[in-house]
Design a protein that fits this description.
Number of domains: 1
Protein name: PIG-L deacetylase family protein
CATH superfamily: LmbE-like
Mean pLDDT: 94
Strand order of the largest sheet: 3-2-1-4-5-7-6
Helix content: 25-40%
Number of helices: 6
Low-confidence stretches: none
Keywords: Hydrolase
Organism: Salinithrix halophila
CATH topology: Rossmann fold
Oligomer: single chain
CATH class: Alpha Beta
Distance between the termini: 10 Å
InterPro entries: GlcNAc_PI_deacetylase-related (IPR003737), LmbE-like_dom_sf (IPR024078)
GO molecular function, one term: hydrolase activity
Length: 233
């Protein structure tokens, strides 16, 4: 059974970016899914009305993340505290070294992270993908680790501030249509982030899962011009 490591910056990134893929891995026993989250999301919103104080937000979002991870069937969560909104202020080598140690620990067959633009352009998203890429490339197993970026195709309905990837650069598509209810529940687990959820996934907070996307898209880092051997799942 293969091991897949998903590496992101914030609690909720996993549900926003590829919750359907994570749910499918669990439901179809496609492998062991491990999540690395670099921050506790303490710089985000506590909700409106607030569900906690700003001082409590990191702990609150950790609980939200672990609830979403349980719903999605994630096997293990490695949550770090590098500082929400602060990843660009710490030495990249520090974050890369932490990820390198995790690669040695979990020995993944594939690693999934953001593309260089971070989809939303968030600086933390861009830093985490840079650190992940450097850690994989420096690994003694670099040649055998499949590295992917989760992306949005240019064919998607454009949203201001969101970065898209040309369709011909997308190497892998994962059908997540059977798992849209689970995707919805995982998104709803991030209660403090209800404003963002309502904006990105209209209707989800009213349990309207039918409008969620049916496909999640990935790009092989090694070569997007030809689909590499092997598969994401």
């Amino acid at each position: 059974m293969q091991t897949l490591l998903f590496a992101f910056a914030h609690p909720d990134d996993e549900s926003f970016a590829c919750g359907g893929t994570l749910a499918r891995i669990h439901a179809e026993e496609k492998g062991r899914a491990i999540l690395y989250c670099a921050t506790r999301g303490e710089a985000g919103s506590p909700g409106s009305p607030p569900l906690c104080t700003k001082d409590e937000l990191g702990d609150y979002r950790e609980r939200e993340l672990r609830r979403a991870a349980t719903l999605l069937g994630i096997d293990e969560v490695f949550l770090r505290d590098f500082g929400d909104g602060q990843l660009s202020k710490i030495p990249l080598e520090q974050l890369t070294a932490d990820l390198a140690r995790l690669l040695d620990q979990v020995n993944p067959d594939a690693v999934i992270t953001f593309p260089p633009h971070g989809i939303s352009g968030h600086p933390d998203h861009r830093v985490i993908q840079a650190a992940v890429t450097k850690a994989v490339e420096a690994s003694a197993r670099a040649a055998s680790i499949r590295l992917y970026r989760v992306v949005l195709p240019e064919s998607a309905n454009p949203v201001e501030g969101v970065h898209y990837t040309p369709v011909d650069e997308i190497t892998h598509r994962v059908d997540v249509s059977p798992y849209r209810r689970v995707m919805m529940e995982a998104l709803k687990a991030h209660q403090t982030q209800h404003a963002s959820i309502a904006q990105v996934f209209p209707g989800v907070l009213k349990s309207q899962w039918e409008h969620l996307h049916r496909t999640e898209f990935f790009q092989s880092v090694h070569s997007w011009k030809s689909i590499p051997r092997g598969s994401l799942l």
